[in-house]
User: What shape does this take?
Amino acid sequence: MDNLNGAKPHFVIVPLMAQGHMIPMVDMGLLLASRGATVSFVTTPVNAARIKPVIDGASDAGLPIRFVEFKLPCEEAGVPEGCESFDLLPSVDFRKPLFEAISLLREPLKLYLEEAKPRASCMIADICNWWTTEVARELNIARLVFHGPSCFFLLSSRNIHQSNVYETVADEHESVVVPGLPQRIEITRAQAPGWFFEWKEMQERVMEAEEAAAGVLINTFQELESEHIALYIESTKKMVLPIGPLSLYNKDAKSKATRGNKPSIEEHQILRWLDSMEPRSVLLVSFGSMVRTRPPQLIEIGCALEASGRPFVWVVKEAEKCADVEKWMSEGFEERMRARSLVITGWAPQVVILSHRAVGGFVTHCGWNSTLEAISSGVPMITWPHSGDQFLNEKLVVQVLRIGVSVGIKVPVFHPEEDKVAVERDAIESAIASLMGGGEEGDERRMRARELGEKACKAMAEGGSSYKNMTLLIQFALEQCKQ
Assistant: This one.
């Protein structure tokens, strides 16, 4: 815990109600509280229930963090009751109404801050919560924005937007070179459309909110993206603090297992199975909280895993395990794979799995949390992007860092057709063989991944680059207290 000489800054953290956004911001709140700062973390009843073990653990440890629950006005915004996170929505049609419901927390947040003791000295808002700009301005509270994606994505998106490079293409599938990067990176508009491409008004509000912020926090670390961080600072002319990988705040198996949600399988069962496997022999297959893989594609993945001959942990969501998939699994797959597979239905403690010595590869959708968790554990990846920031994250992993193998996806999957297979089993099996196999290229890829994992741990340790940036963040808030 830091010696704050009696003064305690009070950080108010306002996340977006989405698992990929909430999880790193919870880690950030716990990290700030562990270093002596007072923290108010804004949440809702359903989201608080999902992280109850985390809340209880913080209370037991005596950390100065409050989880402030506001009722989300679902009915008022036209969102089904209880759907307080984007992964709980029954349809993509409810995404915009949920953004609207979250923005209606403006008044409850303002009332809380007017009465908060000690007075809030710094607000940290998810970049998507543009509406917090007005609250911070009215109450004269310094406001920083938190970016969940990689700095590589942020810089690329900013450069694409400012250069209007997409205006030169014939259609959304024609490649362009991303301007202003140290490397030659080609992307299509379909793969990297930018923030809130469907809703221009929201995109403009988000960009205005970032311009109005006093600084930017990013869940990355200096040694991973040094060139891109420097260029981003030059472009934004702001204080930019890389403070990650935030997942490394969680040191023990219990805290790793309870991040985000209660796992559907006890961590000791997973650890016992992993302990029985050879080092770096297991492949983890998991596509984050938002992706919904259709039955034919799930079966193709399963057939490729079986054909690979390698042990694997496969995370299948409850919503994905329909009658067709259940039937296929029960007709021989489960029996044949019993000795070398662990199929988890529901929420899996991903960091617990990735950080185990038995795991040697990760098939991922390239969401930044998952990507950074793999990097932190020194695990190379098979990249299978779906949408959002994921295609640019894939470029970073495969082309810049050279710690991944692409499965070959070229077109985003927004509304996958029931019977369409995006990647055939042979291509999946080939990627697995390339990633997990021997040879000079594979050995060098594993070595680079391992070295980055060591650098990630050093960045978060006392005296590391992210640790120092967290100190600068606390000092910034203390200056606001004085003013």
Q: What stands out?
A: The domain at 10-249+458-482 is CATH 3.40.50.2000 (Rossmann fold).
